[in-house]
Amino acid sequence: MFPTVDTEEISQVTSLKGKPGACSDERDSSENTQVSESSSTMDLTLNMLFNSLTVVCFALALSVYGAIHNFPPKTSRVSQAVRFFSPDSVVTDWYRGELGNALAAIYLKEVSFVMFYAPWDAESQYVRGEFEKAANILKGRVNFFAINCWSPGSECRNHHTNIYSWPVLISYSVGFNGVLYKGPRNAESIINFLELIMRPLKRISSTEDLVSLLSIYDAVAVGYTPLTETSKYYNVWYKVALESLEFDTIGEICFAVVTSPHLAVDLGVNTLPSARLMMWNETKEYKVNGETQPWNVSSLMHWVLDNFTQPVARIIPLWRKSYNFDKFADGNPMLILFTPLNPLYEQLPSYALMREIAMEYYSCKNKTDPWVLELIKLQRVQRLIYQQKDHFKFCKEFKFKNPVKRVIPHYTKSVISHNNKYPWINSTQKSQKSGLFDMLLKQGLFSKAMESSDDSVLWSSLSLLQECKSQSLPAEKSFYTNYEQCQSFEHKVNNEVEYELESVETTMLPLEDDPLSPENLLQDSVKHSCKLLQFASELELPVAPPPVSGHVAHVFGLACDTNATLYMLAVDSTRNYHFAESLGIDITKKKDRTAVVILDSKQETQYILAEDYNAKSVRDFIYNYTMGTLRRSLRTHVENTSYTHYYESDNTTNKGEPDENEVQIIDLTTRTFRKVVRTPGMVTLVALCRGACGAAAVRAQLHAARLLRACGAPARAARLDALRHDLPWRYAAHHYPAMLVFTADGSGEADSRALPAHVRVSAGALAALALRSLRAPLRFRVRLALCARQRAFIEKRACLKDIREHITTLIGRNLKYWRQTDNEELRNFLLIRLQYLHQASLHLSLLNVTDLKENSEREKLLLQCLDQLSKHWDIDMTALTRNDTFAIEPR
User: Fold this and answer.
1) Cβ burial 235-272 (10 Å sphere, 16+ → b, else e)
2) Would 89 disulfide with which of 85, 449, 836, 874, CB 3.0-4.6 Å?
3) Which CATH superfamily is domain 634-774 in?
4) What is the mean pLDDT of residues 77-83?
């Protein structure tokens, strides 16, 4: 209870008993008592009502506050998960995130490819289409699954809470851990990765197989693993080849295996198991040595990846440009080849040509192994043979039909593998020394062909092999038809090969009923290869450099002749064309979308190959760069750029007459820069910026140009993005934005002046810089107009005083030149100039402040004198003799 008044006072006021006093002035008199009693009662009642109302309102507020904050939180229900892939898709979509059921289904399949996605993620939505394209191509061979790992409360979301980017792509194989896919997220790259997953190892049955692999791949990692009862050595090497695809998604390292101890001995390997990493210029050997070099997956994989080198590095930018190019940006120049690098083709002739040239470039003359020279020749032969093949014709004419049942039911034939013609037949010969490439080596075809620079010699020499080699396909390095004809050809080369026929009891199914028979596997392999070829050709047709004839520059050992060795890089121009655009190359206008550029970071220069890409032009390009005879290429705007963000920079300029009240800023390029700044009689204010120019620079340009136009000097503003457009060295800026003023007379290169870096960019600073660059007569006219624009008489008087002092200085300088020269013609020119300078000085001395207005007779006489001075201001410099030791001030 809240007390309102004293209880004693209440009892006194409310008491009706008492003896009335004798006087009304007394306290207890009857009159005083009645008035006091009535007033006090009213006040007491009001106070009690007010306090009671206050207590009720306070209690009500507390109740409302508690009721509001005691309500349960309002939450929206989680939206029901929907399918990410359509129901009729070949991709099995676990859109509710059932991780356990999904993994149970995945582990039952031989090869599976899984996409963990978030439905709201833009990258997941993009990869969905590419993922489904790959699934349609590889259906029946690889099982594709998709798991929604974002649905709240789902099993996948609860188990995987640390996923920072979507989607996550993992390949699973029976008996092995998953392999994370880190390559480009497009259909062709995914298909190539899964083809490598299905066949991670190449089996070597002869020396010819090894030589063939070395002629195609950058490096061949060979594991010598005997097939024991447990096959543990083979399984470890198989797992190394499988898990290495997480770091080598395009298969630049070819993993091969030799299981025959006899073949291993022939290849010089005596200790098993062991591994060799065979590259173009050296061979690394891995020998098992207890705990220091054990035969396990981690040690072998680190050894292979750490020692792998290649003559031309293939760069696959994955949104991390600095990371991909960082190890090459150490100061040495880089040669970058932009060309289509579709991984579904067996060979890329453009890339193979660059690799061949790189091997020549890096081969020092005194240290080159003879085998390296032979390998270079072999690669050239392999490239030209591949270019002769017509894969599309083969797929079109191949007859896909069921094989006819054999007439002899009990018949076997020992088939020797040549270049993996039948990789599923497990037959290894102890000594296999024959083959097409061995024949080429024996007959000296390589040396004879390489002695001539004409490719036509080698093309004609390869006609003998064309019929047998034309049957190989991109995805399957095999010979599918005319095997008997090619076999008879190889019989002539090697007489040691013999085939035996044996009558052996067999339990094989009839061929038409056995899907795993060699003939049916052959049919399926050819069909799948043609399907891949068709899909690859829909993306882009195969490209190959044309054959050349004539003299070709010699690039052998040039890397050892200079201290600045070129790094050779290759970038896919189809997926990464924006890198070429940043270097000023419009890749869409290049033949076969192929271009070559050399970047020299130390010299801050770049050189672009102007001719079409072929064996001669690239060698000449490298040779001329090494000799220092190349002309620097200037980057400029690329037309029709769709995905490069910068302000408009087209090749058009304002060709109309400039408006006095309107000033437009011209966007310059490398091609239009000289044309604009060399316009006779025009003052051009150019801003060089890193990207878009700031508001302060643009505003200063506009105000300065408008001021100069109002004062009688034709002026305009322009800007140039220095990050995307290169200029000649004399116009290179050391800070941005850089403000340049150009005045040209049309006779040669434009004269330029730069605003100092420490000066604030303003309209007054640019106007003052432009005044210093003008010829003296025009400068006087502009300064007179500026004096007239001043409001105070003191400022006008000071302005006229400065002009008089300037004219006096010019008179004294020209008088000095007239006295020092002995050339009569020059003395006459200087005398005429001095006469008009004296007249201008006289008219200026008579000019008053009040004469700086329109229709002033004195100002008109001064301007007429300046016009005459302008006509006789320029002096013919050919009149100067070689004995003149002083410099004539042109301004």
Assistant:
1) ebbbbbbbbbbbebbbbebbbbbbbbeebbebeebeeb
2) 85
3) Glutaredoxin (3.40.30.10)
4) 77
